Structure formats: C-alpha cells, structure tokens
Amino acid sequence: MKISKILQNKKSFSIEVFPPKKDGNIEQLYQTIMDIKYLKPDFISVTYGAGGSTRKNTEKIASYIKSNIGIEPMAHLTCIGSSIDELDKIISEFKENNIENILALRGDTPKEGDLKEGDFKHASDLVKYISKKDFCIGIACYPEKHPEARTLEDDINYLKLKFDNGASFGITQLFFDNKVFYNFIDKIEKIGINKPILAGIFIITNYNQLQKITEIAKPLLPETLKNNLEKYKDNQEVIKKIGIEFAINQSLDLLKNGVKGLHFYIMNQKESIIKIHEAIKNYL
Ligand code: FAD
After folding, report:
1. Of 214 and 96, more confident
2. Residue 273: which of 243, 228, 253, 233 has the closest Cα?
3. Has residue 273 got a pLDDT over 90?
4. pLDDT at 54 over 90
C-alpha cells in the first residue's frame, strides 16, 4: 500500500532499520522485526548505503519485510554518483518486488575516494524522475537546516521543489528540541507546503553512538538532556532509561501538538521501541 494513503486516515507510527554490515546478521534483523510486528508499524523504511551499511541489501530486506513479515516497506534510494541506467535497474527491481514506496535522497558525498559523476545532482531531480513511475515518494527534510545549506530559508525553498516535483510526504532528520520542529512546520506552511511531515525520533541508547550521530546532524540538545547524558555517560543502563523517557515525552508532546506521524530511528534494536510504543500507543 502507498504510504500517502495510510497518511490520509491516521497519525502514522513507523520505524527505520538499516541493512547490517555483515550479511550474516540479516536473519537477526528479520527476527527483531518479527518481534516488534505486534506493535503494528504502519511501515518500515530500509536505509540505502547510510552509515556504511551495504546498498545491495536494501531491496532484499524491504522485499522480505513485505512478503514474509507482512509490513509495508519503504526503500531508501540515493542518486549521488549514480547514472540513470543504474538507478533504473534498482527502480525496476523495486517494482518487481512490489515495493511501492521510495524515500528519494541525494545521499552524502563520500569522505574517501573520488565520487563518480552521477546523472542527478539533487534529491529533487530524483523525485522528478521517479514521479513518472507510479511510486509513493517520501523525502528528507531538516528542521535545523541541512548542514550544507546557507540558511534554513534556502533549504526550505529546495524542500518545496521536492514536493512540487512529486513527493507526497517528508521525514525529518532527528531533532531533540520540539520547538525547532514547530518553528519549521510554521515556516514551511507559510510558503505553501501542506504535505504531511513525519517527525524523525532518534532513540538514545548509547552515549558514544549519540556523539557520532550528533557530529553529522548537529541537533540542538536541550540543556537538561545534555547534562544528564554527560553525567551518566559510562552507565549504559541509565543512558538507555534516559533515552526511553526522553523519546516518550518528546513523542507525546508532538502528538498533542498535531504531528502527522512519528518515524523512529531504532538502530535495529527492539527493547526501547517496545517500551516507547507502550507509553504512546493510546495517543496515535
Ligand atoms: P537534497 O534535497 O538534494 O539537499 C542537499 C543539499 O542541497 C541541501 O543543503 C539543500 O538545501 C541543497 N539543495 C537541494 N536542492 C538544490 C538545488 N536544486 N540547487 C542547489 N542546492 C540544492 N543517506 C543515505 O546515504 N542513505 C539513506 O538511506 C539515508 N536516509 C535518510 C533518511 C532521512 C529521513 C534523512 C533526513 C536523511 C537520510 N540520509 C540518508 C542522509 C541524506 O542522504 C543526506 O542528508 C544528504 O546530505 C542530503 O540528502 P537530501 O536528499 O536531503 O538532499
């Protein structure tokens, strides 16, 4: 089913997973997804080459989630450094496997090695191309602006282009301060974007992992959260508890304030999302 259809009727609850670096760990990921199936996520998205994960398994995992687990998948796809022929091959494979939803992205410039010239420069070009192929298209958005963008206003204008080119909904980069999200929604509505924006919620489980992720996304960390994490950084169990409590409060506040959906970055772990879902399920 197309995600745009799901979003017409309800506030969505969804999850992101990534293909494990080692092929041998895919079965473990499938088991994790089986174990959280009862939470009834509206869809599960599968990243594409992000954070060093392999590209080739995105389609395999998305297709398994659909056919063997029975949850709607969304496959991420990046265009940076790819030719139209290469993208066409992947898009046809998505079609053959009944994958109806694509998160269309540019992707990050690799740190090492030369990036070969691709046919599309920005996600908006990829969106335009895929929009002719009968997929439901999601795109990324950045309440605290994309790191390369000069200003939030510039970034929002390019976001509008992604919607004008055929995207149906957006998913935000992680953020920890809801005020940032509300300000972003105000700004995009003012320039005429009225498509659903799902809030990307990162679940903190590990201090070092959070450090790495915040280096990339550079989100504002509320002072109390920052101090608490700093204080207990060597106690994994307490960090997990802080992460769960924070995500619950963040989600409840968003739900009370009209968010269209919550998309959880679960880092392929089930424990925290089970507890968070229990606390928020009546508000979805
Ligand atoms: P774009 O929309 O192309 O924007 C990139 C930059 O270019 C921005 O600064 C924007 O303001 C600017 N820009 C956009 N259009 C134009 C234009 N026409 N002219 C000039 N400037 C322009 N990465 C992965 O590798 N794999 C994944 O699976 C993945 N999943 C993600 C999921 C989510 C929800 C998010 C938020 C990010 C994800 N990323 C993933 C990271 C993403 O690829 C990077 O953030 C990347 O740097 C930008 O991708 P984009 O699609 O937002 O690019």
Report:
1. 96
2. 243
3. yes
4. no
Write down all domains in the chain, each with its CATH number in brackets. 3-283 (3.20.20.220)
At residue 76, the pLDDT reads: 98
Q: Is the CB of 77 under 6 A from ligand 1?
A: no
CA of 107 relative to ligand 1 center, distance in Å:
6
Locate the ligand 1 atom nearest the alpha carbon of residue 122 and give its number: 3
173 lines ligand 1 (CB under 6 A): yes
End-to-end alpha-carbon separation of the chain, Å? Answer: 20
Query: From start to end of 124-260, where are the E strands?
Result: 136-141, 169-172, 197-202
**3-state secondary structure at position 261:** strand
pLDDT at 68 over 90: yes
Residue 119 has what DSSP assignment? S
What is the chain's percent helix, strand, coil content, to nearest 5?
A: 50, 15, 35
Residue nearest (by alpha carbon) to ligand 1 atom 14: 158
Q: Are 229 and 183 in contact (CB under 8 A)?
A: no
Best of 80, 122, 218 for a ligand 1 pocket test (most atoms within 8 Å of beta carbon): 122
Instruction: Give the integer Cα–Cα distance in Å for 58 and 51.
Output: 13
Tell me if 200 sits within 8 A of 143, measured CB to CB: no
